[in-house]
Amino acid sequence: MGQRHRFMLVRNLSWSLFNVAVLGLGNAQQLRAAVEMVEAMEVAALLYASKTPAWSTGLGMYFHVYGHASVNALHLHLVDLNATGPTFEALRYKNLPLQAVLHVLRKELHGG
Q1: φ, ψ for residue 6, nearest 5 deg
Q2: Residues 68-104: b if buried by 16+ CB within 10 A, e if exposed
Q3: SS (H, E, C) the chain
Q4: Residue pLDDT tens, the chain, 112 long
């Protein structure tokens, strides 16, 4: 997707974490855990980008939802938005922003 592009993977390979589409399914405790995990992924991504030479402050963080994902495990794309390539535009339709995921999970958590 660009000159500076990394994957962040989770170590837990439970079905409940296989893809962003199933995060938080189940009870309120699982939903809360999903919110906390995505928040932690965001913090880790921002820290990685800030501590890695050549990465800009323009960090894109995207999930690919099942059906549009070529990796059958939960993964977050970290993309330096100041160093994208033609593949970024070609795959834009797959990119679900991390903030959109957090928005929906938090809304669901608070009954909404």
Answers
A1: -135, 160
A2: ebeeeebbbbbbbeebbeeebeeeeebbbebeebbee
A3: CECCEEEEECCCCCHHHCCHHHCCCCCHHHHHHHHHHHHHHHHHHHHHHHHCCCCCCCEEEEEECCCCCCCCCCEEEEEECCCECHHHHHCHHHEEEHHHHHHHHHHHHCCC
A4: 788 999 999 988 888 888 899 999 989 999 999 999 999 999 999 999 999 999 999 999 999 998 888 888 899 999 999 999 999 999 899 999 999 999 999 999 998 6
